[in-house]
Write a structure and sequence with these properties.
Elements (H helix, E strand, L loop, with lengths): L4 H13 L2 H8 L3 H15 L4 E4 L2 E4 L1 H29 L6 E6 L3 H5 L1 H7 L4 E6 L3 H9 L5 E6 L11 E16 L19 E4 L7 H11 L5 E5 L2 H9 L5 E4 L8 E4 L7 E9 L8 H17 L2 H13 L1
Parallel strand pairs: 3-4, 3-5, 7-8
Antiparallel strand pairs: 1-2, 5-11, 6-9, 6-10, 6-11
């Protein structure tokens, strides 16, 4: 079987994500199709390229050899692609913008500015919780723009032909049921939540769960995560009084949920835009950044707790 560029990218994706499931999502494939393709490659090359277990996919010695050669070849090919995109970018106006975003103020908020900037373009939105998947989709030309949410020390490495611009950095706040004893406090110490039942989103490659666990450990405890849930179920569990959770400072006002700052601001998050350096929207990047900043500030204005936190911080400085 003759190796092709797409095969090399596939192998690198499996190695980078450590999982066939996550690699398939990043490549825009179904996992069974990726598994079959990998099996054909392994048959053609004469041996297994990865060992697969409950802990993920790890390269074998043969896999390490092939990956080392692939990682040497792909940057040169990407350079050719980037140069071609740079030459083509010029004055061309894209007819379609595929925008991917994690849940947050920039997801739906950036759609109206995109339509104003590109009135003739078809605007599509993909919501996706994984920063890695979104960034890979942009790098692979399957999205033109992505909005991601990153945490200090856990930022994604960016390829040379990719651009990331941080729109805003904000504290992470605690979300409490409206009958919680701490709802009357101006802020809550992380250590005071040691005995609480927590709900957090399942562990993923954004590593927020790891970030939170490390902060709790520094505060002297390990969080008792009784529930793992996505955004909708997460807020249901909190509003019904069954757990406490964490949220963005721009968390929308939600019935029966009270948002409170954490004392000392132990947790932070950064909203960022990602695009190809020479991609079809590169020329619009300054306007998109400005629009995203306006969208973010509008979200802040809808978040009373965040506005109060900002005012107190300004008075203390």
């Amino acid at each position: 079987m003759e190796l092709e560029v797409r095969h090399l990218r596939m192998l690198c994706a499996i190695a980078d994500h450590g999982s066939l499931t996550r690699a398939a999502a990043a490549l825009g494939m179904l996992q069974p199709a990726l598994t079959r393709q990998l099996q054909r490659l392994e048959h053609g090359l004469g041996g297994p390229l990865f060992t697969r277990s409950g802990n993920g996919s790890v390269p074998t010695p043969l896999g390490e050899y092939v990956l080392s050669r692939a990682r040497a070849v792909l940057p040169a090919l990407d350079g050719i692609n980037s140069d071609a995109l740079r030459e083509a970018a010029g004055a061309d106006i894209p007819s379609r913008i595929r925008f991917g975003a994690v849940l947050g103020p920039l997801a739906a908020g950036l759609l109206p500015p995109l339509r104003r900037l590109l009135p003739a373009a078809e605007i599509r939105l993909l919501t996706e919780p994984s920063n890695a998947v979104l960034t890979d989709l942009v790098a692979g030309g399957r999205l033109e723009l992505a909005a991601i949410l990153e945490f200090p020390g856990y930022e994604l490495p960016m390829k040379p032909d990719m651009r990331r611009h941080v729109i805003a950095t904000e504290p992470v706040f605690v979300l409490l049921p409206d009958d919680h004893p701490a709802v009357g406090w101006p802020e809550v110490c992380l250590a005071e939540l040691a005995r609480e039942d927590w709900v957090l989103e399942p562990p993923d490659d954004n590593r927020f769960r790891e970030y939170v666990t490390m902060a709790c450990r520094d505060a002297g405890f390990m969080p008792r995560v009784c529930y793992e849930a996505e955004a909708g179920s997460l807020t249901d569990l909190i509003s019904s009084g069954q757990a406490i959770g964490l949220g963005q400072a721009t968390f929308r006002v939600t019935p029966r949920i009270v948002v409170k700052p954490l004392a000392g601001n132990p947790l932070w998050a950064s909203h960022a835009l990602v695009w190809q350096k020479y991609g079809p929207i590169a020329g619009l990047a300054p306007k998109l950044i400005s629009a995203a900043e306006e969208v973010y500030e509008a979200a802040v204005d809808r978040s009373p707790t965040f506005l109060e936190w900002r005012d107190r911080r300004a008075q203390q400085s």
